[in-house]
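Predict the 3D structure for this chain.
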Amino acid sequence: MRIAVTYENGEIFQHFGHTKKFKVYDIEDGEILSSRVVDSEGFGHGALAEFLFNNGIDVLICGGIGGGAQTALKNAGIKLYGGITGSADDAVKSFLDGKLNYNPNVMCNHHNHEEGHNCGSHSCGNKGCH
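Done. Predicted structure below.
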């Protein structure tokens, strides 16, 4: 299994669509075999979901994430655990222990749009859901 975490300075980066790095963990028999930090090579939800898919990621742990990105990950077969804060390493350990406290209904929170807004339906300018 391969897990990716949105990453910045040891912590879980809080906006999937803007993450510049992922920490990728290779897992076997419930143990971390290796980890490395990789540049995302893309910007925006579709490019990042494709990047994760192309790198064999099975699970994504992140902070905030919009509806468009959630759909792209689902279509790529990547399981999402969102709404997480704190240390990337601690989150992966909690996941492996079956104790990760995540939000299955996580959504991005950087928009000031009407209720029911879906990040996947447009570009949001500077704050970005590209």
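Residues 45-54 form the longest helix (10 residues).
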